[in-house]
Amino acid sequence: MEASTASGPRERRIGIIGAGFTGTLLAVHLMRLAKTPTHLFLMERRGDYGRGVAYSTGNDAHLLNVRAFNMSAYPDDPKHFIRWLWARDDPSIPAKAIPPSGHAFVSRGLYGGYIHEQFGEAVREAADHVTCSTLGDDVVDLKRTDGGGFTLRLACGSAIEVDAVALCIGNFPPAPASGVGAEAAASPFHISDPWDAAAVAAIPPDAPVLIMGTGLTTADLIISLNHNGHRGPITALSRRGLHPTVHQEARSYPSYIDDAANSEVPLRITALTRRIRDEVRRGTADGYDWRSILDALRPHLRRIWSRLPRDERRRFLRHVRPWWDVHRHRMAPQVAGILERERDSGRLTVLAGRLRSLTPETDGLAAVVTPRGGSAEIPLPAGWVINCSGPACDYARISHPLVRSLLDGGLARPDPLGLGLDVTPDAVVIGADGVPTDGLFALGPVTRGTFWEITAVPELRAACAETARSLAGA
Q: How many Cβ atoms are within 10 Å of 183's Cβ, its own excluded?
């Protein structure tokens, strides 16, 4: 409980590091829930609030990967985003394009505007005892104070003292892909961050492009290349050559795994996958789409993950994750149509295999690829290489100064699976000594090791509401 002064309780100061979807929505909930004097510091090096990397794109062809029905910012008001879309006077999105079922996929830029608007409304409607400062800077150091709070040092050199901190730092750019040596990584023809719009725009229209990865980010990148007028050949390479499946409208499926999710008996991946496959066979025989059957797991995923022993989690990551990702995280039908046309035209080739070597040449990087299941080597024409292999998750290897400060100072530790930081079930960061760091929270992808499914809006909005309640009642 906060100490009081003669005029009332002392103002509680909360620092939120990162103002993408997660940090901004946490601030929105805090401004609505705080009952005592509270000041928020919302810090974002990009200087934009509510959009982050995912929702700041200006390309209308970059669509949400989740249907509009599931994109409300508020877990207790699931149709909020749909009503917001219906209320817009926007000829590019007529109300009839958003059916009552919410099975529609709008642009990410539009959704970023929605979250930005929610933040603005929360600031305007906040009670007099709740205030918020936005700071367009990067936090590079975080330390404990003698009083139990934290000191945040910004890149500009100034420092802020707060009582509690929420890490909403999102995803870091991909780690170097396997087969990419130091010389190739340093080449001007190698793009390590697929969301570096300026670097992608600099690719000549006819240049060959090799994309390391075949997931959702690869689909976004191909759309960006098309938007830039690129017409050269594209090769997308991943170990298995898997690409995301496509969303389809499907009816809901009854829950079938409640007992496994709520039991105290540790789960085994082999038994769990067998059970899901059996249910898919039964459900599809009854006329259900497999997507409905998989989606019926969603309310239970957090409990299921918590019941998996660590070795079973590792087994899942090693053997099941690639197939889980492409079936669980799907793409909009419009995006799938674009990729299908590019493949049919011969411009896009998807390969399953490994990068054997990447050699700098005068006109680009020359790649040699070994197809999956074979030993023959396939040379690719020299060109540009873009790393879409997925965000860096092993915090022991991430060099960002804030991450190094947290780990070197003992306030945090990497989770045992190398997926982010170790946190408690209440999202409190666990220190190097194994003890939760009181007042230090983490939300979003950084908590994947504890929660697993924590990157999509339905899970993130619930996490933001839960953590806001914890902070508001502290």
A: 12
Give the angle 392-394-396 at the CA atoms, nearest 5°.
Answer: 130
Phi first, then psi, for residue 387 (nearest 5°) are -85, 110
- State how far the Cα of 57 lies from the Cα of 49, in Å rounded to an integer: 14
Label residues 340-363 b or e (16+ Cβ within 10 Å = b).
Answer: eebeeeebbebbbbbbebbebeee
What are the backbone dihedrals phi and psi of residue 19, each rounded to the nearest 5 degrees, phi first? -130, 40
Q: Mean per-residue pLDDT for 174-200?
A: 92
Binned at pLDDT 50, 70 and 90, residue 441 comes out as very high
Angle at 427 between CA 276 and CA 47, to 5 degrees: 110
Stretch 370-399: mean pLDDT: 92
Compute the radius of gyration of the chain from its Cα atoms: 23
- Assess contact for 196 and 387: CB atoms under 8 A: no
Structure tokens at 32: 């609505």
> If we measure between CA atoms, which residue out of 211, 185, 266 comes closest to residue 386?
211
pLDDT of residue 257: 86
DSSP 146: T
Cα(3)–Cα(211) distance, integer angstroms: 55
Q: What is the pLDDT of residues 56-96, one digit of tens each?
A: 888 999 999 999 999 999 999 999 999 999 988 777 676 56
